[in-house]
Amino acid sequence: MKEKHLYEYAIIRVVPIVEREEFLNVGLVLFSKKAKFIRVFYAIDEQKLRNFSADLDVEQVKLNLQSFEKIAMGAEHCGPIAQLDVPSRFRWLTAVRSSAIQTSRPHPGLCEDLEETAKRLFEELVL
After folding, report:
1. Could you say which of 42, 44, 54, 118 would form a disulfide bridge with 30 (CB–CB 3.0 to 4.6 Å)?
2. Helix runs in 3-113, H state only
3. 3-state SS assignment for residue 100
């Protein structure tokens, strides 16, 4: 029997007009402390985002999501947050904020294959 991994995940949301609190799910971040695993997946539907707000700077959203992914992966030149350990990076990424990129509250789970679970959740909850 394969080892089971405890993990947490959060949905990444774009909130085009923060005051209206409407959002579009665009990604997922999944992490497992014991496995030192963290993954970010995202996909942007530009037309759906523009339906929320014609003034939204979609290119800036893309850059912000790329930074989100680089921080999660601990990219070398992405500042001090990216250099933190995996649990600290996950906690920073999922901290409550009032900006155009937000996350849901983290949700726990248990699985055998973290990579496959991240992909499955992304497909089910975002795509």
Report:
1. 118
2. 46-52, 58-73, 79-82, 86-93
3. coil
- Under DSSP, the state recorded for 46 is H
Closest to 80 in 3D by CA, of 93, 89, 91:
89
When pLDDT is averaged across residues 24-44 and rounded to a whole number, the result is 98
Q: Are the C-beta atoms of 78 and 70 separated by less than 8 Å? A: yes
- Boundaries of every domain in the chain: 5-125
3-class secondary structure per residue, 53-82:
CCCCCHHHHHHHHHHHHHHHHCCCCCHHHH
Q: What is the pLDDT of residue 56?
A: 92
Instruction: Compute CA distances 121 → 12, 40, 93, whole Å.
Output: 12, 11, 18
Task: Tell me the C-alpha distance between 77 and 64, whole Å.
Answer: 15
Is 53:16 a contact under the CB 8 Å cutoff?
yes
- Total residues belonging to the chain: 127
Residue 29 confidence class, pLDDT cut points 50, 70, 90:
very high
What are 68's two structure tokens?
């989100």
